[in-house]
Amino acid sequence: MIPFIQNLIIKIIFILIIFEFFLQVLDFFIEKEIEKEFEKEIEKEFDSFYFFGNWKIQNPINISNNTFVNIKNYCIRKSSISRVYSQVNNKNNKDVWDLDLFNIKYGNPNNYKKAEKIGSGKYSNVYLCENKKYVIKELKPISLNKIKREIKVLEILEGKNNTIKLLDVFKNEEEEEEGKNQSCLDSRYHNCTSVSLVFEYIENINYKELYPNLTKQEIKYYMKQLLIALDYSHSKGIMHRDVKPSNVLIDHQNHRLELCDWGLGEFYHPGKEYIVRVATRYYKAPELLLQKKDYDYSVDMWAFGCLFAGVVFRSNAIFKGSNNSDQLVKIVEQLGFNDLDQYLIQNHLFLDSEVFEIVKYFEKKDFSPFVNEENQDIANQNAIDLIEKLLVYDSKKRLTAREALEHQYFQEE
C-alpha cells in the first residue's frame, strides 16, 4: 500500500510541475501578445514618428485615450546628467533656488527717468536713462515666478566674471494695472506682474558691425571672456539657455564683455525635465530640437559653438533653419546622420518621419569648406578643432566651458 501512495504522490507532484511550467509558458505568450498589441497601438497613434532604440514596456496599457506624454511615463528612458557642476543646487540651501522662498526687494522708480528706447524683445523693452549711466529693462506683464527667477539668478551671479550686474528693481505700476486686464505673455499663467530691472549702461557695438572687423587676437580674447562667464554661471548651478550674439555686450573701446539677458536662466537639477522652448533657433542644441527635456549646461556650450563658428568663419550663423525641423536638418546636413542615429538610440529619442526621410543618407562633412580667403587667417586648425568638439550631438561628449578654456586654441600665440 505504501509504495502505491508514494508513486501517487510522485505523479501528483510531477503533474503539478508540468502544470506550473504550462502556466509560465502561457503567461509568457500572453505578455508577448500584450506587448505586440501595445506596439501596434503606438504605431497607429504615432505613425508620423520614427522610433529609435528599444523601448521597454513597464506596464502595458490601452493607449487609445492617452497622449504621447502618458506613453513616455510607461517607458524606461535614460536621464542625462551633466558631467560638471551636477550637484551644485543639491548642495545649496533650498532658499538659493526655491522661488517660493524668495521675495523681491523693490527700489524707488522715481530715481530713474527713461529716455530713448534702445532695444526690445518678446518679454521686454530696454530704455536708456537720461543720465546715460543706466539702462532700464522694462519687463512686459509676465508671471511673477518668471520675474523672480531672472532676479534671483542675477543676484546669485552678482555681476562677477563677465556677467551683467543687476543694480535695482522697481514696479511698473501703470503696466501692472494694465496687466490685470490681459493675459500673460506666458500662456501657462494668468496673473501678470510688471517690473523694471536697472543695469549699468555699456557702450555696446552691434555684433553685425563688430564681429566682421575683429582681429584674430580680439576674437580669442572675447571668446575667452564669454567662456569665463559661462563657466562661472554653470559653477553656480545656472544655465543661461539663450546664448547668442545679441546677448553678449561688448564695449570694444574698453575691451569689456558682459553676458546679459538672463530671462531664460534656470537652476540646474540632475534629471529634472525643463521646457524645450528656450534658446534662439539658430543656436538651439540638437537635444532641444529633439524635445529632450532632461538637458543640462551643455545647451549653452552648443550655442557658444555656433556663435564661435559664426565669428571665426565670418558668417552670421552657420546653421540657418527656417523652422525647428529645418534647423535640425541643417545640423544633420553638416554633422551627418550616423552619429545622430547613435545618439537617438542611446537616449531613446525619436525623430519625425519626414525629417528622417530627408536626413537618413546625410554623411558627415568637414568644416574646411567654410574656410575662404576672407577668414583663412582666423579659421586655423585649432579653431576648427574647437568647433568640432563643441558641435557634437551627444551632450556628454561636448566640451564644457572649462574644457574649452583649456583647449589649444586659447594657448597658441
UniProtKB/TrEMBL annotation:
It is an enzyme of class 2 (transferase). Its EC number is 2.7.11.1. The chain crosses the membrane at residues 12-30. It holds the Pfam family Pkinase. CDD domains: STKc_CK2_alpha. This is non-specific serine/threonine protein kinase. Residues 112-410 form the Protein kinase domain. One of its GO terms (cellular component) is nucleus. GO terms for biological process: regulation of cell cycle. Coiled coil: none annotated. Keywords: ATP-binding, Kinase, Membrane, Nucleotide-binding, Serine/threonine-protein kinase, Transferase, Transmembrane, Transmembrane helix. It catalyses: L-seryl-[protein] + ATP = O-phospho-L-seryl-[protein] + ADP + H(+); L-threonyl-[protein] + ATP = O-phospho-L-threonyl-[protein] + ADP + H(+). GO terms for molecular function: ATP binding; protein serine/threonine kinase activity. PROSITE patterns: PROTEIN_KINASE_DOM, PROTEIN_KINASE_ST.
